Amino acid sequence: MKIAAFDMDGTVYIDHAIAPETVQAIKDWRAAGNLAVSATGKSIDSVRRALEPFDVDMDYHVLYNGTVITDANYGVLYEHHLDAEIVNEVAAHLDGTPGLNLYCTTLDGADGIVTQGIPESSNDFIQCPRVVSRAELEDEKVVLLSAYMPDNQPLQNQIIPWINERYDVSTSLNTGFFDMMPPGHTKGTGLTWLLEHLGLPRAEVELFTFGDSFNDLPMHELADASFTFPHAHPDVQARAHHVVADVPAGLRLARAGLSASGGD
């Protein structure tokens, strides 16, 4: 069994679109009897918004950096939530911080914005968030919190240690977003859970991973062959098996039986 796991932003979904060549490559991959899995920090709502306009289907979804796993129709197979006390303490501490937006994601509905310290609340990754008050946040079952601090290294140096030193959470920094998840969750753990759920021994699976960011590294470490791209950070490129032009180029190699030791 061959499985391809795809990051979304910067990998499949680029500049608010999915290239026709990528759409066709994923269709061809699945038509050949292989599985396609989205593996992303995005929420259910955000993945729907990204994939459905381009008629892209996945067999499974590893979402919120491995914190929620669904079937092809977004039926939840596995879920975990952040501790409500942590959510509310972090929101209280970050409330009103200039240069920082705090977003929350849940299983239902659009992504929420809790704290807005950047004038424009939308960005390339979260579109049209709903406003969530601190009072409303207390009633939400939050899967992931994300502090958005783009191009602000001093603020990141202040906020990230404060959270990491106080709370038992998994964290990931990616394109200005500092994501906070329930402990022990990554894209790698999500894919591992999915393989176990499917009853597929690891030795019987050829796993190919596609991603351009640091939060993709845990799944790249599991892969028989991992792919990243020329625009990825040099450290990500150094830790992937192959640097390819785009997803279709990587899938052509995967279908041909490329291994980790093969050429680019």
Automatic annotation (TrEMBL):
InterPro entries: HAD-like_sf, HAD_sf. One of its GO terms (cellular component) is cytosol. GO terms for molecular function: magnesium ion binding; phosphatase activity. SUPFAM superfamilies: HAD-like (SSF56784). This is HAD family phosphatase. It comes from Corynebacterium phoceense.
